[in-house]
Please model this.
Amino acid sequence: MRLFVFGASGGLGARLLDQALGSGHRVTAVARTPESIPGHARLTILSGNVLEPHGWRRVLAGHDAVLSCLGSADRRPTTVYSQGMTGIIAAMRDSGVRRLTCVTSASLSLPPTAPLSRRLLIGGVVRPLYRHLYTDMTKMEDIVTTSDLDWTIVRPPKLTDGELTREYRTAANQHLPRPRTLSRADLAHYMLNHLDDQTSWRSTIEISR
Model:
């Protein structure tokens, strides 16, 4: 497949690139720090910003799928998720690319059965601390789910730098019982290996070890 990846220089993006190239895919990667990405014969690296589509949108045509690994740990107000996804979807429509996979967070929605300790941690500490990030993530999910694309939103729990295990649980359009942690390598594995899985299209997937 020909894949178009945003956030390729981040922790998740690096693992996604490594697995995609190792599986024989051709990849176009957009990154603000392209010098941090090792070269490869099947990899095209674009220096760019998701918020500035003029730098990459004309290259999008001919790709089979877009994968967004965008992320931020900034506590300040941000539009990188919502504004970035608005530009991505507009470019995909113009280019005829329909398959989209993006990442948000399992903490956006907690089940009523979540343990009290988790509800206190997420609701009392994490969400208030990163309220701007979660607000923009929620906006991005709304933008994606109201689009006419073949989209998948993946909601992982806390991510780690652990090894690739290929052992994880998923739940489509419902909460996953007892979420723990997940390695970025395993998240990348799911994203890559379910691009053709039509049961995951137009679905929000929770994932965890």
About this structure: The mean pLDDT is 93. The chain has one domain: 2-208. The beta strands are 2-6, 26-31, 43-47, 65-68, 99-103, 150-155, 158-160, 169-172, 181-183, 203-208.
